[in-house]
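[step 3/7] fold_predict: job queued, chain A
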Amino acid sequence: MAENEPEPEPLQEDARLASLDERLRRAKHQEAVRTGSADTKGDAAYRLGNRVLAELIGGMVGGAVVGGTLDYFLGTSPWLLLALLFLGIISAFRNIIRLSNRRPE
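[step 4/7] structure written:
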C-alpha cells in the first residue's frame, strides 16, 4: 500500500525570498561602492590594457597615414611611409614604457 501513495511534492523556492536575496546583494554592492571598499583594481587594469592597445594601434596607424599621405604628395613612395611608421612604433613603445613605470595611485 505504501508504494501506491504519492510522495509529497518538493517545496518551491518562495519568490519573495529570491527577491529579498537579490535586493540585499544589490544593497551590499551599492554600499561597498559608496564607501570605496569595492574592488576597482580590476577596472584599473582593464583601463590600462585598453590604453596600451590604443597606444600601439594609434602609433602605427598614425605613422602609416601621415607617411603614406606625404609619400603620395611628394612622390617618395615608400620611404616616408616606412620611416614614419617606424617612428610611430617607437613613440608607442616609449609611451607604453612610461605608462608601465608610473606608480599605482
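[step 5/7] annotate
The chain has a mean pLDDT of 86.
The radius of gyration is 30 Å.
exit 0
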